[in-house]
Each structure stands twice: as C-alpha cells, then as structure tokens.
Amino acid sequence: MQDVRFSVAPMMEWTDRHCRFFHRLLTRRARLYTEMVTTGAVIHGPRERLLGFSEEEHPVAVQLGGSDPRELAQAARICEEFGYDEINLNVGCPSDRVQEGRFGACLMREPALVGDCVAAMKAAVRAPVTVKCRIGVDDQDPEEALNRLAEAVVGAGVDALIVHARKAWLQGLSPKENREVPPLDYDRVYRLKQAHPALPIAINGGVRSIAEAKAHLAHVDGVMVGRAAYQAPEMLLGVDPELFGEPAPVADGLDALERFEPYVAARLAEGVRLAAMTRHILGLFAGRPGARAFRRHLATEAVKPGAGLETLRAAVAHLRRAPAALGEAA
Ligand SMILES: Cc1cc2nc3c(=O)[nH]c(=O)nc-3n(C[C@H](O)[C@H](O)[C@H](O)COP(=O)(O)O)c2cc1C
Question: What's the DSSP call for residue 183?
Fold first, then answer.
C-alpha cells in the first residue's frame, strides 16, 4: 500500500526544488510534491529546468496538469525516467488558465476521462500513480461527485487519492479564495475512506499542526499539508518523531540552516540567486526574538546582486544576538 501518511502539498511558485531540499532537511519521511507541471511543458519544454531535482529530495512526487490520456502517459514516462517516486494528476486547481486547458478542478465533472487518464498513466509507468482532487465543483453534490470520481480512478488502478476537503467554485472566486472560502468538509473525506477501505486516502485542507494531522489519521490514511508547512516550516520537525516514531534529522531551525549552507553554496556557484533559495525560509523562527530582523535582513539583502552565504549568516546572527537586543518581538 502506498505510504501516504504525511506529505507537503504541491504549491505553484512555492514548492520548487530549493524549497523541497530545505523541507527535506526537517523531515526524512514526509513525501514532497513538485509544483504542478503541465503535460505540454514536460513534453516540449526545458526538461532539466522544469523537472530537475536533487537526490536528497526522495521520496518526491511530480504533479502533472493535463487531461489528454496519451500526453499524460508520455509525460508520466518522462517523469519516471527523471526518477520521480510518484506521478500525481491535478484534479483540483481552479485557475482560469487551467479551466481553458480543460484540466485541474473542472475534471471533477468528467470522472470517466480522469479514469482514462489514470489508466493510460498506469500503463506507461511502474511508479505509483495518484490523483489530487476536490470534493466537487460549483453546484455538484459532493456525495455523488466524489463517489463517481473515486470509482473511476479506482477502476483505473489508482494507487492513492488525496482529497482537498472543500469544493472549488469555478466562477467568481480567485484560486486564493478557492483555498479559503468554500467550507471544509472533513467528514465527507472520512466517509469516502469508509466506502473504499482498500484505497489509500489522504486528506488535505486547513491542517495547521502535527496534532491536527494525528487526529485526521484516526479516519484516513494520510494528511497533506500545504500553507502551514510552508509558512512555518519548523512544523515539519514534528513529522518524523510524532508520525513515524523516528528522530528528527536536525535539532531545530538553526541546525537545518547550517545543513542548508553547502546546498546554497553549490547553487550560488551555479548562478542561482540567493533570494531564490532564502525566500523559502522566511517563515522560520516565527514568534521568536530576532525573527523579524532575520526576515527583514533576507528580504532586503538576499535580493541584491552578488548576495552570498555571508548574507544568510548575517541574517541568522540576528537570532543569535536576539536575547541581548532591545526586547524585539518577532
Ligand atoms: C501558493 C499555492 C500554490 C498552489 N499550487 C497548487 C498546485 O500547483 N497544485 C495543486 O494541486 N494544489 C496547489 N495548491 C493547493 C494546495 O496544494 C492545497 O491543496 C491547499 O493549499 C490546501 O491545503 P492547505 O490548507 O494545507 O494549504 C496551491 C496552494 C498555494 C497556497
């Protein structure tokens, strides 16, 4: 059975390879997801730039956006050759651009097509093929819409289903509003698990802590966390000890940053800008003395041309200096 116990959600512009490498320093066991990549980009685009990742990121899943079974099969094969551990299909993104391409959340209306997509991907790769969906869109009845989608993908041999426990409203809401406005309905996902005991099911949406994740695990096989993990990454330090009974790979955020340095240095040498990496660590140390100065330092200095490791170290020094500082609240 696919281990879906804990994962960090796919997030466009956020979960790029630098972000995933950093998250991996905080947890060995969480499954990490890429940003969504469209089949067209995978097939025709600059593959190394779009799909390249570090060996340390495993287990890492790629998320594909598309709705043409043949193209999805081809893209899945390419991703498997890159070494991804799982191929995930996006059936949850509500953006206009995605709707024009007839994929993402609007596929909730076309369960048979989603089944065909999964079957084509399964036939093309040995890696597990999973789907991330919503409980419905617009005026759909979530009981029926989610059941039909689940039955279609189970029939096609899907290895796991991740359900963002709210509807997407395809008209009138921005993608951001579609992550906040439609109400969460965790019970709907719990009922799906009861109806499909053999199918690994992970729940997603609004989970803010490891304690909350644990509570969900009484009802479903796994929990996927997006914004909370990105915005306060130290949450991930609890994953290995509390959900897998294994020690965390590092003691704390400072320890993680020390281990991040060789990676940052290697990327800087390749011409990656410091800010492209440090933007993913701005949520560290939230609420602690010096955190605000740490963030401010990175936000203003890391974007400057030529910014290097010394900039990162100077930002960290604000934290080490903090107790003697003027009682700054983060
Ligand atoms: C900045 C951002 C980008 C996102 N991009 C994607 C994406 O590419 N694919 C996807 O399936 N979901 C995407 N999502 C949705 C998340 O994966 C997740 O379903 C949603 O944020 C709810 O989980 P959370 O409450 O734990 O954040 C994105 C969310 C955010 C905040």
Answer: P
